[in-house]
Design goal:
Pfam families: PPR, PPR_1, PPR_2
Organism: Salix dunnii
Largest sheet: none
Order of helices and strands: HHHHHHHHHHHHHHHHHHHHHHHHH
Keywords: Repeat, Transit peptide
Family: Belongs to the PPR family. P subfamily.
Strand content: under 5%
Structural class: mainly alpha
Protein name: Pentatricopeptide repeat-containing protein
């Protein structure tokens, strides 16, 4: 409760977002508050204090996200000792975290921070201290899988093979499907996708059948290396093993092709999905829309956006944000405006840089009212950025006035302006729509213009 007491005193403006009732907050409520605070906190001591006060646990998804954010911020500021002390403290001081599950999660967090040596140390310590513990038998493969994934997170792909071979033998751990998939993932992400064939052979010998995740990694790897013959081989293997590839596998293939600027081929895969009765989702369309936008075919991107809505597929945030950004970049502000309006109607607002492109474009093309309307909606929903948006709005008004001052509609005033280098406040205020802009900054800009 100490955390929330301090929040009431130090951050009174958060009352509208956080429930400061006298009843104890739920675990999820505390975790959400901690996550919100962590996003803007940089002091390592305060980061740990926020985490401790929230009693974080990795059992819930939001708890894992919060752990990840905290560790990431500490790692980026090179506060590695804080990470080690914090994770060690949790494992030793909290009975609910003295488990194989949290040990595995700690190993992954060490990998995220680039502290693979600590991850390996924890793996070894846990096995040496628990060699005769019944819990270890079911937990050792979980720790091995966590360590392999930790190698991937820390970009130490060369360590994956060593850990897989040496630690499996030394600690008598029988690899499972997740183990093999993680090794294949490492090969495919490090440009050695062909090495995955040997892993598939070992899986066959051990009677471990590959699944969609296995083939998803293989497709991503071979596409990335542009080994299209191997892509065909993987497609045949899916049929051989009798696996019905779902939309997840198709999304990986579509995404891979779009990254290679082969969006038309990716669209053929979409049509293949539809012919097989496989329903595409928002991720499918997000990849395709971005792919066509990157290739400059915005008309096809707009057609895909329309078709996904006609098929009852709800556009994801990325679909809206991508379209608004690229439409704004090519000057199609009217289309971008309507896409943005639809997005905001569903409480999905593009990021501030994309929104600035749109509102500035609308204002420059004579649609100042529409630009101000969008800014008003954004300010209403995101009060923390209100000052920034006030500046953007003021800039739009000033540009609008500048455009009118140098336009033909103001020609009658030009001669009298040129006759003097200084202007009275009265003469400026007599010009329509300019009195609202009488600030020192505006006056200086107008004088520089003339």
């Amino acid at each position: 409760m100490a955390l929330f007491a301090r929040l009431r005193l130090q951050f009174p403006h958060l009352r509208q977002h956080i429930n400061f009732s006298t009843s104890p907050p739920s675990s999820k409520s505390k975790t959400r508050t901690a996550l919100s605070l962590l996003k803007s906190e940089t002091n390592p001591e305060k980061i740990l204090e926020i985490c401790r006060s929230a009693s974080l646990t990795p059992h819930a998804h939001i708890g894992r996200i919060t752990f990840s954010v905290a560790i990431d911020k500490l790692a980026k500021s090179n506060n590695f000792s804080y990470i080690d002390d914090f994770l060690t403290e949790l494992r030793t001081s909290r009975p609910d975290l003295r488990t194989v599950r949290f040990a595995a999660h700690s190993i992954i967090l060490y990998g995220q921070a680039g502290m693979l040596d600590h991850a390996i140390r924890l793996f070894k310590e846990y096995h040496e201290k628990n060699q005769n513990d019944a819990v270890l038998t079911s937990g050792s493969v979980k720790l091995l899988n966590a360590l392999l994934f930790s190698c991937i997170l820390s970009k130490k792909h060369d360590e994956v093979k060593r850990v897989f071979v040496d630690f499996s033998k030394r600690y008598k751990i029988e690899p499972n499907l997740e183990t093999f998939n993680t090794v294949i993932q490492s090969f495919c992400e490090s440009g050695s996708s062909s090495s995955s064939y040997s892993v598939l052979n070992e899986m066959d010998m051990k009677g471990v059948k590959p699944n969609e995740t296995t083939f998803g990694h293989l497709f991503a790897g071979f596409y990335s290396e542009e080994k299209y013959e191997d892509v065909g081989t993987v497609s045949k293997m899916i049929e051989y093993y009798g696996i019905n590839a779902g939309i997840g596998v198709y999304n990986i293939r579509i995404h891979s092709l779009c990254k290679l600027k082969r969006a038309k081929e990716a669209k053929v895969l979409l049509e293949g999905c539809l012919s097989k009765g496989i329903k595409p989702n928002g991720v499918t369309y997000s990849h395709l829309i971005l792919g066509f936008c990157m290739e400059g075919d915005l008309e096809e991107a707009k057609r895909l956006f329309k078709s996904m809505e006609n098929r009852g597929c709800q556009p994801a945030y990325s679909c809206y944000a991508t379209l608004v950004y690229f439409l704004g970049k090519v000057g199609d502000f009217e289309s971008a405006y309507w896409v943005c309006k639809e997005s905001m109607g569903k409480k999905m607002v593009p990021n501030i840089s994309t929104m600035k492109i749109l509102v500035q474009g609308l204002a420059s093309s004579g649609e100042l009212d529409k630009a101000k309307e969008l800014i008003g909606e954004v300010k209403e929903r995101f009060s923390k950025n209100i000052e920034l948006w006030n500046e953007v709005e003021a800039g739009l008004r000033l540009k609008h006035v500048k455009g009118k001052l140098i336009g033909t509609e103001r020609a009658p005033f030009t001669s009298c302006w040129k006759s003097s280098t200084s202007f009275s406040l009265f003469s400026l205020c007599s010009i329509p729509n300019i009195s609202e802009l009488i600030t020192l900054k505006a006056l200086k800009s107008i004088q520089e213009l003339l």
